[in-house]
Amino acid sequence: MSIAENLAEIKARIAAAVRVSGRVGDAAELIAVSKTHDAAAIEAAIAAGQLVFGENRVQEAQAKFPALKAAHAGVRLHLIGQLQSNKAREAVMLADAIHGLDRASLAKALAVEIARQGRAPKLFIQVNTGEEAQKGGVMPDAAEGFLGECRGLGLEIDGLMCIPPEDEEPALHFALLAGMAQRMKLPGLSMGMSGDFEVAVKLGATHVRVGSAIFGAR
Ligand SMILES: *Cc1c(COP(=O)(O)O)cnc(C)c1O
């Protein structure tokens, strides 16, 4: 299957999941995760009408996206991986959304850069729903406090993001995150990847991050 065919299939499956869950229109945005894939693969996706992409490393995104954005109006980049505070400047310069906000030092660095550059990417707080030691994200019981800290720095927070543990039922994590976002009155929910995006959409995802099902194995 080509990238265009994969995209058409994923979009149809998202639309079907939106429909069965009684949600309206294009309530779930597809982020095509292009990490490790070259500009030619991304160009193929753009030619098929996809404009929103995800990368998890600032350096790799920097190597690919300034040229793609210059060549194609409307291309948007989401940084979805763990972000080091010393990459905040590049991240704010390059990204239209940042999904890995999970600690005060990063929030402070982003606040400084957003003020300095006058450019404000959408921000998602990553929640470590599985409470895994090796994974980024704030612990669920610390999320609300962290939201307050971010707002105290002047940051506008759009939503929550999670990456469920690989060996657990993702629906439990998606439902947990959706409940948290509802309580915290945050509209955005970044959840769901190639293997589970339909489940995520049914549980309220506003953004799904799909890589290998579009671009092939990494
Ligand atoms: C790589 C990545 C994805 C996409 O994963 P696939 O299984 O290839 O769809 C989604 N989210 C994050 C944070 C990633 O790093």
Describe this structure in words.
The structure is a single chain. The chain has 218 residues and is of the alpha/beta class. The protein has one domain (3-215): Alpha-Beta Barrel (TIM Barrel). Helix content is 44%, strand content 15%. It has nine helices and eight strands. The chain has helices at residues 3-20, 39-47, 58-71, 88-94, 104-117, 143-152, 170-183, 197-202, 212-215, and strands spanning 29-33, 52-55, 76-79, 97-101, 122-126, 159-161, 188-190, 207-210. Strands 7-6-5-4-3-2-1-8 form an eight-stranded parallel β-sheet. α2 (39-47) links the parallel β1 (29-33) and β2 (52-55). α4 crosses α5 (104-117). The mean pLDDT is 96. The structure holds pyridoxal-5'-phosphate (PLP). Pyridoxal-5'-phosphate (PLP) binds at residues 33, 35, 56, 80-81, 163, 193-194, 209-213.
Q: What's the short version?
A:
The protein is an alpha/beta fold and 218 residues long.
CATH superfamily: Alanine racemase
Biggest sheet strand order reads 7-6-5-4-3-2-1-8
Quote the beta fraction. 15-25%
Instruction: Work out the number of β strands.
Output: 8
**Low-pLDDT regions:** none
Q: Biggest sheet: strands, sense, closure?
A: 8 strands, parallel
Question: Helix and strand layout, with pairings?
Answer:
Blueprint: H1 3-20, E1 29-33, H2 39-47, E2 52-55, H3 58-71, E3 76-79, H4 88-94, E4 97-101, H5 104-117, E5 122-126, H6 143-152, E6 159-161, H7 170-183, E7 188-190, H8 197-202, E8 207-210, H9 212-215
Parallel strand pairs: 1-2, 1-8, 2-3, 3-4, 4-5, 5-6, 6-7
Bound molecules: pyridoxal-5'-phosphate (PLP).
Pyridoxal-5'-phosphate is lined by residues 33, 35, 56, 80-81, 163, 193-194, 209-213.
